[in-house]
Amino acid sequence: MTDRDAGAPIAAEGGIETMAAVVQERYDTRPEAVLRTGRLPRPELRPGEVLVRVRAAGVDRGTWHLMAGLPYAVRPVSGMRRPKLPNPGRTVAGVVERIGPDVTGFAPGDEVYGTAPAAFAEFAAARADRIAPKPTGLTFEEAATVPISGLTALQAVRDKGRIRPGQQVLITGAAGGVGTFAVQLAHHLGAHVTAVASSRKLDAVRALGADRVIDYTREDFLAGPQRYDAIVDIAGNRNLRDLCRALTPRGRLVITGGETDGRLLGGTDRQLRAQLLSPFVRRHLGTFIASEHADGLSELTTLIDAGAIRPVVDRAYPLTEAAAAVRHLLDGTVIGKLAVTVPLD
Ligand SMILES: NC(=O)c1ccc[n+]([C@@H]2O[C@H](COP(=O)([O-])OP(=O)(O)OC[C@H]3O[C@@H](n4cnc5c(N)ncnc54)[C@H](OP(=O)(O)O)[C@@H]3O)[C@@H](O)[C@H]2O)c1
After folding, report:
1. Residues 46-104: tens digit of each pLDDT
2. SUPFAM superfamilies, alphabetically (predicted)?
3. pTM score, whole prediction
4. What is the 178 CA–ligand 1 centroid distance (Å)?
C-alpha cells in the first residue's frame, strides 16, 4: 500500500486497482494520530453486494467508537487488538458502479445511500439490503448523514417510543446527529415536543419543530412538574430514577445513547439496567441497537421527499481532512451532522 495523495486517480498497482481512502492501522482516541489518507485496493464484491462510488460519507459517534476501539465492548465486532476494517466510515451516499452476484433492484448509475463498511474511501462494498435510492432532493453530502442517525431516530421515536398525536415527548441530545432527526419525527407524528440542548443550539432545535426548549446548562430538565408520555433519551446519562419520575404512569423511556468515559461498557450499563428493571415497573423502560435495513431507509426517503424531515449538515470536510471532521465531532459544537466528501477523478 502506498501513501499517495487521496485525490490521485484510480490506478492499477501490480495489477490491482487501488483507490484513495482513509487508512487506520491501530486504535487511538486521537483522530489525527490514526486517520491518514492513502491508497487501498478497491473492495471485492461478494454475493449480495453492490460497489458504490462514494460521493460522501457521514461522521457519527459510531465512527469515533470504531476508531478508538472504545468502549472495549465494541471490540469483539470491530477487532480485538486492531481494527478489522481499514477505516471507520460507516454511512455512504454515492452512485452504483457495479453490482455483485445475486443482486437485483440496482443498476450501475443509480444514486443510492445507506450503510457500508470502510466508507471513507472512493469505493465501498455495500450490502444490497442496506442501501436504498437516494432522496432526490438531497445532495450527496446531505444524504450521507442520514442512514444511521435517521434510522436510529425513526426506531426510537416511532417504534420504541410509540409516539402518537398530542402526546408529551421529551428529547435529550436534541441538537445532535440522532436528536435533530428525532425532534422532526416526533413533531411530524403530532407530539408536543420538549427538546433539551445547550444554549447556542436552542434556536436550531426550535426551527426543527420543538414546541418547547430547555437549556440543560441553566436548568434541570427533569425538575419541573411536567410529565411525559415518552422520553427519548439520547444524551446526558441521567439516572433512571429521575427519568422515570418524569414519565406519566404508563410512559415509555427509550434510552438511545449517552456517552460516558467508561472504557469497558461506555454508557451501556445504564441501558442494561433499564432493560432488567422494566418488567418490575408500570412504566416501560427500554433500549435498542438500531437495525440497518433498506426498508427503513426507504421510509426515511419517503419522509424526506414529503418534506417531513431533513438532515441538518453543520459542515462537510474533504476526504483528506477526515481526521479534522472526527475531531470536530468531539469538540461539542456541532449542530446536526458532519460529512466527508470524496473527490471525483
Ligand atoms: N442505540 C443505537 O443504536 C444508537 C445509534 C446511534 C447513536 N447512538 C448513541 O446515541 C448518542 C448520540 O449520538 P449522536 O450521533 O446524536 O451524537 P452527537 O451528534 O454527538 O450528539 C450528541 C448530543 O448530545 C448533547 N449533549 C452532550 N452532553 C450532554 C449532556 N450532558 N446533557 C444533554 N445533552 C448533552 C450534545 O449537544 P449539547 O450538549 O451542546 O446540547 C449533542 O448535540 C451516542 O451515545 C451514540 O453512541 C445509539
Report:
1. 999 999 999 999 999 999 999 999 999 999 999 999 999 999 999 999 999 999 999 99
2. GroES-like, NAD(P)-binding Rossmann-fold domains
3. 0.95
4. 7
How far away, in angstroms, is 70 Cα from ligand 1 center?
16
Catalogue all structural domains in the chain, each as residue range(s) with its CATH number: 18-146+311-341 (3.90.180.10), 149-287 (3.40.50.720)
Taking the chain, what is the end-to-end CA distance rounded to the nearest angstrom? Answer: 19
Q: State CA 25 to chain mean position distance.
A: 23
Q: Provide CB contacts within 8 A for 160, sequence distance 6+.
A: 252, 254, 286, 288
User: Are the CB atoms for 324 and 317 separated by under 8 Å?
Assistant: yes
- Substitution site in 222, 234, 275, 326 for ligand 1 pocket (most atoms within 8 Å of beta carbon): 234
Nearest-5° Cα angle at 285, 288 to 290: 10
Please say whether the beta carbons of 105 and 128 come within 8 A.
Answer: yes
Q: How many CB atoms lie within 10 A of CB 343?
A: 15
